[in-house]
Amino acid sequence: MGASFTNEPKNFIPFLDLLKQLIRVPSVTGAEHSFLLYLKRELEEIGIETQYYDGLLVAQGKNPTKGMLSAHIDRHGVICTGPNEFQFAAFLAKNRSDLRGNSLSEQTYQLIAKRYINQQVQAYEPWSGSYLGIGKINDAYMCEEVNNLIFKIEGLSHLQPGTPIAFSDKLKRDDDLISAQLDNVISAAIIIYLYQNGFQGTAFFTAQEEAGKSWRYVYEWFRKNNVTTNELLVLDTSPYDTRMEADVQQVVLRNRDANAKFKSPILKQLKNFCHKNGINFSCKDSFIQEKNKIRKEKGLPLLTLGSTELGRIVMESKGTIQGTTLQIPTTGYHTVEETASIKSVKTILHILSSLYIDKNA
After folding, report:
1. Residue 181 CB neighbour total at 10 angstroms
2. pLDDT tens track, the chain, 361 positions
3. What's the predicted TM-score (pTM) here?
4. CA distance 350 to 208
5. In this structure, are residues 122 and 101 in contact, taking their beta carbons and an 8 Å threshold?
6. C-alpha distances in angstroms, 52 versus 59, 137, 203, 361?
7. Which of 39, 249, 281, 301 could share a disulfide with 274, CB 3.0–4.6 Å?
8. 266-273: long-range contacts at Cβ-Cβ below 8 A with a sequence spacing of 24 or more?
């Protein structure tokens, strides 16, 4: 079965250790404060300046324009909404103003409800991150009246409304695969790792992406600082139904999403880098369009191109802020069994290090 982490080349062991560490810190959508403070401390310990805003942590090295990266840091979880009442955090009524029905999350969350049964969960205080108790999900189902998933949880009847509940999680390894609730703590780990190894650019860590809100925090920062860019690179995971589908490519790019086209020199640079270095890549929008041709022939409902943080930023800024995405192909989306190949993770680290870290510095 699973191989030891210590069998990895030395330069990859620190990344896995960092990822293991970050996964254990809860960050439920809408209750990310304690996780953002954890990242802030990690960054400041290695000399990176940070600014913490509502819903956004901005990190800047000594050369802030040498790369602009963004990653959402919220993970799916549950919120106590009343006496022994628990709902899926991202799709609470108060969050739905930013959800348009065209995201992959909204299309899939009803399908995966049963995956959460028997899942162990832990409640925490949203500001300090203090542990408030442990429980187990006995049932999960769609409630049409509130248009959300409702959870039956044993052991947490004492909680007050507003208390976040995270899925208990740890990084698991099985040969050349790693699994956990990777979306999107793995991108946060990648950015921290890059800073530890010499990255000196700017990074945005955003809250509430799963509720469709994260783009607002980044866009507001650009506006109030009177900054524009066409090289914003958003890191994330990208879901596939099977390992066979996921393993076709090492990395996933995008030409567009449901909101906007991506017109960035970084997109061309990434494609050229992959071609030059023999890296298999695909574009998610092209993959979905090909799937839709088959679905249309079979009379099946068409899949959305997906709504991304970057697409909303491009649309709302009328193209004054542009960029592209770089994603890790995964399976088991939005569960603690989300799985990625180590080859894909290493490839992403190699690409970003080559683009943004000066080896002569």
Report:
1. 25
2. 333 333 444 578 899 999 999 999 999 999 999 999 999 999 999 999 999 999 999 999 999 999 999 999 999 999 999 999 999 998 886 665 555 554 545 555 666 677 889 999 999 999 999 999 999 999 998 888 888 889 999 999 999 999 999 999 999 999 899 999 999 999 999 999 999 999 999 999 999 998 889 999 999 999 999 999 999 999 999 999 999 999 999 999 999 999 999 999 999 999 999 999 999 999 999 999 999 999 999 999 999 898 899 999 999 999 999 999 999 999 998 889 999 999 999 999 999 999 999 776 5
3. 0.92
4. 28
5. no
6. 9, 34, 12, 28
7. 281
8. 266/230, 266/231, 266/232, 266/233, 266/323, 266/324, 267/324, 269/355, 270/324, 270/326, 270/351, 273/351, 273/354, 273/355
Q: Which two tokens stand for residue 154?
A: 């044993």
Specify the amino acid at residue 57. Answer: L
> What does the block give as tokens for 123?
């409640």
Tallying the residues shown for the chain, one arrives at 361
